[in-house]
Design goal:
The protein is mainly beta and 208 residues long. It is 9% helix and 39% strand. It contains two helices and 13 strands; from the N terminus they run βββαβββαβββββββ. Strands 7, 8, 9, 11 and 12 form a five-stranded antiparallel sheet that branches. A three-stranded antiparallel sheet has the order 1-2-3, with no helix packed on it.
Length: 208
Amino acid sequence: MIDQPDGTTMQCGAGRCITLSPDVGVPATPSAVDIANAVQMAIAAMQLAPPPICMTPHNGTPPPGTGLVGLWSWFFFCPEQINESNTGPVSRTAAVPGFPLVVNATAVNTSVLANWGDGSVPQLCVGVPFTPYVDAFGALPSPTCSHHLERSSELEPGGGVFRPSATSNWLVTWSVAAPTGVQGGVVPIFLTSRTEIRVGEMQVLVTN
């Protein structure tokens, strides 16, 4: 037992110390700050990541391929980069420092906001990690997240490309069984990735 200046007592053993209340010798109640810090530690341990963007037309580096006005652009998570940290759900725990309490937290990637970078209205897509594109789909729209290409990127500043972004909307639900009862809450987290795509326009001359 170690008496503290504030009247509390620290009981130490097995490499850890627990704060005891001065009158009844039971674990004291953690403050909101103590619990919030433990929640943040649990979230940090999740190592949540933004969505790995794969698109048609081909995006990123090396220089993106060129799509055509009038076709469909697909958005999906790059299959070789899919993991727990970018698709979820992810569950982690964290001890409340100085108290015999543990925070339980689970993060769920509820949706992705796709901004196609061409001035169109951003699209909220659900069903992470979405249907991946294969050549067999041809010019069809994606059943989970797609956008019809309406204009060329040729005149866009900085290289003649559109710069789409994708933002994962995570919800972290947490709980802790404190001496005063079970406490819990929800923490929203938004993580964004960016890429580049090029869209061209095919000129066609129709004659009789």
